[in-house]
Amino acid sequence: MATITKGAAPSEIKRINQRQVYIITGDLAEDANLGGALAEIETILKDVDLPSGVRILPSYARQSNDELQSSLPILGGLAGFLVFVVMAVQYNSLIDPLVIMFTLPLALSGGIYGLYFTETPVGATVIVGAVLLVGIVVNNAIVMVELANQLYQEQQENPQVLQPSRRDCMIQAAAQRLRPILMTTITTVLGMYPLARGAGDGGEFLQPLGIVVFWGLSLATLLTLFLIPCLYLILHEPFNFSWLDSRQISEDNLIGDEAESISVLLKKWNRETKLTIDNG
Q1: For residues 165 and 243, is the Cβ–Cβ distance under 8 A?
Q2: Verdict on whether the full-model pTM lies above 0.90
């Protein structure tokens, strides 16, 4: 009825969707990354001639990596939209939130540059770091714009101020908020530096997150101090360039004040001189 022989056979039969499969597993080398390993596997499998009825299915790691790659724009857009909506409700305006949202491209460009410089692949931790960066980087612009609006409102309510100037308010706000912005940014960046270096046990897993936040926050802070004041003036007064002559007006006012002071001193000196002559 049958012939019994010894031979090699699988210890267990695995099935996916009721189809028999054979799973090949492996571990990444020390300096390898998942994206590069998957690309190398695809290159090797292109030259493999498979028998009839046999085909290659993507692994779970490959499916997860593709899903994360496709979800990055959705998550980033959703995070930015929620931040914009919250600020629009708080400010009751669309101009100030739009000014603040200009920090997001600066932060993301810094994170992308950090990933490129360190040759770090995009993965789940990179996406988490990008979403985290969206919520952190807007704080610097918020404190600067908020103080500028408060100073401008005070000028409007002050009867001694004939013409409120957003330029003067932004200059004063940037000077007053420079130290708090630098202090908070430096502490956050230094806190992320060990994580970006991948120090400690299991640090390689969270290293991409630290790289994105470290590079993104550093570059965004430096550019925010220069670009946000300019964008604030351009969007609030797009067709008003009178602030270009504000320095000349200030100098003229200063000259007028000095002339008035000199005139008062001369009158006082003339009175004292006349009094001295009369007493003499």
Answers
A1: yes
A2: no
